[in-house]
Write a structure and sequence with these properties.
It contains 14 helices and 19 strands. The protein has about 525 residues and is of the alpha/beta class. It folds into 2 domains: about 375 residues, TIM Barrel (Alpha-Beta Barrel); about 110 residues, Sandwich (Immunoglobulin-like), CATH 2.60.40.10. The strands form 4 sheets. Strands 1-2-3-7-8-9-10-11 form an 8-stranded parallel beta barrel, surrounded by 5 helices. Strand 5 and strand 6 form a beta hairpin. The chain is globular.
Length: about 525
């Protein structure tokens, strides 16, 4: 049975009279980076208990400010935040690569479970090519750089998988398949690190591999084809093993400048996805190899080199029907902030702009700790304004369109506490004919008969029993309402929503509110 009072904090700030000003569907996420202990764990010396409590604190606070998903880095540098037969435990987890947490636990399973308990999606963030964050990293004896040193290239102060080798691609896909088969993730996610960002005066040392595998292509086209291949292979693996899992990419915010390609954006970026990182994201969108894209538009509105609004419009026009979320650089308000990033209206104005574009389905913030530090009051602004009411994540009709069975309201108990009338509503979401996995129940409250065009009032995570329970206080029903309609829907793993349940009708009388039979 759901714990009733766990949801009271939602009710305290959820204002019925303002529901219509909020989007019903919006992806709201934060990246949780583990490399260099940026977000979690906060250090390499935490005990198992401290790691777990720290993660719970992060996602609890993220949910409180309105987030419905997290993107967690589980493979920073050919290492793992889970027990793996391919790669050693990450040094960022225990302080030394290859050492398991003690007391033992599976961090990835723990994070997935805690995230799902809160009705949020868990996207597993993996880095395809980074093998060593620094060349001085003390790697474990079973690290892949020791087993196959011929697969790797040094560039700057880091070691990378050689993207041109078929063996590298096959190895990476085996790692992906292992994650898909063993863990109940909602999404797979890769960021902007394909070929490394250029170092002035240094060429990435893959000339011998190009000579062997170039097959008549230019070196640039060959490098892009290597990235194309690995993205398509991940797509195929997802379709084969868990087709409901979403695959997304978060590229550098500029695909190409219009100065070199008429189809590019009116920007002046020093490096770009296509020309420097060899990531042809538009091809991946066009071919349907990825389900969503999160361009890292980490510039401010009216930036002279890369204007946020210009890039927002460009990505909107080039998303090819896939879901588009915008990556916001809240870290810029903390790391050497410019006057633009000291402006408390910067992130709110960015959200206003993207909400005016029907091709944009949400936001992702880099990163969780930067956001939760509340720079310029932005976390408060989300919690009490822009994300003050919950939002569903839009379904992807190319993934699945089957809707679940609707739940049933089975019981209403009328009570009073502190002179406030309250209704405890219970129900059942189980159905013997159900074919879908139910992840959430959505409560709707309205002054007119409830329909699916209404906005969510509460989103309740489903547990194994598929029972739900929530509290409605009469003080939250807006003045002027004479009737209050309450109904519940089910949402499945693919974010498809059922029809509404049987409707509970409350009527205002001289004695207060009563349940209308």
């Amino acid at each position: 049975m759901m714990k009733l009072f766990w949801y009271l904090f939602i009710l305290l700030f959820c204002k019925l009279s303002t529901l219509s000003s909020q989007p019903k569907y919006e992806f709201r996420a934060a990246w949780i980076a583990t490399v260099n202990n940026i977000d979690w764990p906060s250090s390499k010396n935490l005990s198992t208990f401290q790691q777990q409590q720290e993660f719970i604190n992060i996602i609890t606070r993220l949910r409180q400010i309105g987030m419905n998903a997290v993107i967690v880095q589980i493979r920073p540098a050919a290492d793992a935040f889970y027990p793996s037969s391919y790669e050693p435990w990450s040094e960022y987890l225990t302080g030394r690569q290859g050492i398991a947490p003690s007391p033992y636990y599976d961090p990835l399973q723990f994070m997935i479970d805690e995230t799902h308990k809160r009705g949020m999606e868990f996207h597993a963030w993996i880095n395809p090519y980074r093998a060593m964050q620094t060349l001085t990293t003390q790697v474990a004896s079973n690290h892949i750089t020791r087993q196959h040193p011929e697969w790797f290239l040094n560039y700057g102060d880091k070691k990378y998988f050689n993207p041109g080798l078929p063996e590298v691609r096959n190895y990476f896909i085996n790692v992906v398949i292992d994650i898909l088969k063993r863990y109940d993730i909602d999404g797979l996610h890769m960021d902007d690190y394909f070929y490394p960002y250029r170092i002035a005066g240094k060429e990435f040392p893959d000339g011998k591999t190009f000579a062997q595998y170039g097959n008549g292509l230019t070196k640039d086209d060959w490098r892009r084809s290597n990235c194309d291949s690995i993205v398509k292979m991940v797509h195929n693996a997802v379709i084969e093993y868990k087709p409901y899992v979403k695959f997304g990419i978060s590229p550098f915010g500029v695909w190409r400048n219009s100065s070199v390609d008429a189809g590019g954006s009116d920007t002046k970026a020093g490096q770009t996805c296509y020309d420097d990182l060899y990531a042809d994201v538009l091809l991946w969108l066009k071919e349907g190899w990825i389900d969503y894209v999160v361009p890292q538009i980490y510039w401010e509105i009216n930036s002279r080199s890369c204007d946020y609004a210009t890039l927002l419009d460009w990505w909107s026009a080039n998303s090819y029907g896939k879901q588009l979320y915008i990556g916001h650089g809240v870290y810029r308000a903390i790391e050497k902030p410019t006057p633009a990033w000291r402006n408390p209206n910067e992130i709110p104005n960015q959200i206003k702009l993207l909400r005016n574009d029907e091709n944009v389905q949400g936001s992702v913030f880099y990163s969780s700790n930067f956001l939760l530090d509340n720079p310029n009051g932005w976390a408060d602004s989300l919690r009490f304004n822009y994300y003050r009411t919950p939002a569903l994540i839009a379904p992807m009709n190319w993934v699945d369109t089957t809707t679940p069975q609707h739940p049933h309201v089975t019981k209403v108990e009328v009570g009073q506490q502190n002179n406030i009338q309250q209704f405890t509503v219970s129900g059942d979401g189980s159905n013997k004919n159900e074919t879908e996995i139910i992840k959430n129940f959505v409560v709707y409250i309205s002054s007119t008969p409830v329909g699916l065009t209404d906005h969510p009032f509460i989103i309740i995570p489903a547990d194994a029993s598929l029972n739900f329970q929530f509290l409605l206080q009469s003080s939250l029903i807006p003045a002027g309402w004479n009737y209050c309609y309450v109904a519940v829907t089910s949402v499945d793993r693919q974010n498809n929503e059922s029809e509404v349940s049987n409707v509970l009708l409350l009527q205002k009388t001289s004695e207060g509110w009563e349940v209308k039979k």
